[in-house]
User: What shape does this take?
Amino acid sequence: MNVAFVAHDHKKDEMIQFVIAYQSLFEKHTLFATGTTGGLIMTNTNLDIVRFMSGPLGGDQQIGAMVAKNELDLLIFFRDPLVAQPHEPDITALLRLCDVYGIPVATNMATAELLVHALERGDFSWREVIHQCRPTNIAHRKIKPVETKVTAQTEYLSDANLPTAESQ
Ligand SMILES: O=C(CO)COP(=O)(O)O
Assistant: This one.
């Protein structure tokens, strides 16, 4: 799965502690982050992370572009609710897009921990269905049957609700 990490300045230590705690799980996934958050995680762990720009310089929007292409499976975004950010519109836009595309988002450690356990036990398998429906996979006939755990999401992703080449 594609997992992205973002943390505001006062939440960066919390993010590092969180990622260290679940490092062995995150090793199995493809990781992305805004610039400073990603740099700090890489300094403090052995994880490889694709780093975007720093948040205020466009990093949130770059992650938003992944969401808009339905390429992101999980966003862990430790926001600082007590400090106004100069790039608030970018933050709102990123979270809005996650709701548009139904991407699981954690904005605090308590929720992040629940989602990480869900990731570990296979509750994200419905995302494989979405990946199979990407235009490139359809064009190159890379579609193979996907085993998914039955969840409300898999039920919701009936043929009628699946993204198509036209809708992407
Ligand atoms: O500001 C951010 C997200 O809105 C985080 O960006 P950095 O990881 O570059 O500090």
